[in-house]
Amino acid sequence: MNRKIVATTSALSLLLLTGCGQGSSGETHDDGTWSPSGTVEIAVGAQPGGGSDILGRAFASGVEEHTGDSAVVENYDTVEGVLIVKNEPGKADIVGVGNYSNMVVRPHEQDVGYTWKDYTQLALVAEDVSYVVAQSGVFSSAEEMIEQASGEGLTIAQVGSGAADSLLTGQLADAFNMTLKPVVYEGGGDSIRGVLSGDVELAVLEAAEFLPQVEAGELDVVLSTGTEPAEHAELSDVPLASDLGTDQRFSTQWRVIFGAPDLDEAQQEYWMDAIEAWTESDAYDEYIESNALSPALVTGDELTSYIEDSEQDLLENTE
């Protein structure tokens, strides 16, 4: 689904967060605009190399290009990265990179100390479809994979014991009456190594995590959970789940940029200008194309409704 919507802007131990809130909150000028007084931080609740980190670094470059301000990416554990931003109310020189998993799914599975409503949700900037991948040559088709999984079952790598990958594995199993046996890994790279070594038979991953191995002929992309074919050359011929007779709506790992609670209008305007300028740039187009994402810019009331709908879908699929 290629769409670009522009709308108006309208527990982990707290000891980890000791000392937060002491930094600069920037400067509001006589004309009512706000700007940071130093380097802005892009907080990424993930280790380097994954989809969140890739977004954080791409956006940090966009901030520097379109605002002239310096930006740095800081990597944290998943929950820690989100909570650090929550504990900076009114502070606009730090923003977080969020997704469906850490904004919606995880808070419904664990007492993490936050929900998506605790933040100033600035903009959704991309949607990331998940794919089922296998070691090259193991399955001749998606139908063969489904047939084998419908018997004794197949092992499938997923990142974390909960969150979006777990939900998606369940959706796939239900849609095709398969037995999928989850094997938990810490990250996408670990999942890929598990497939390549033969420790697991399948993995559910986003395209940015596995495209180099596909291009090298080491992995096959067996199935897409998207609603239409991808534009990326390596993914354009991958069968859609809907092609195989299911009307299941699969969760999408959308990606958002969010701010601390209680940002004022001038602070939000600074970030929205930076985000919109970035999404209109060649660098953003390269980010979307190289990671096989669907472009989107959703803000304001549209964004609130989008996240609320995603949350409702989660509740309906996990009752």
From TrEMBL:
Classification via InterPro entries: BUG, Bug_dom1
Gene3D superfamilies: Bordetella uptake gene, domain 1 (3.40.190.150), Periplasmic binding protein-like II (3.40.190.10)
Pfam families: TctC (PF03401)
Keyword Transit peptide in annotation: no
Name this polypeptide is given: Tripartite tricarboxylate transporter substrate-binding protein
Family: Belongs to the UPF0065 (bug) family.
PROSITE patterns: PROKAR_LIPOPROTEIN (PS51257)
Domain of life: Bacteria
Signal peptide (residue range): 1-25
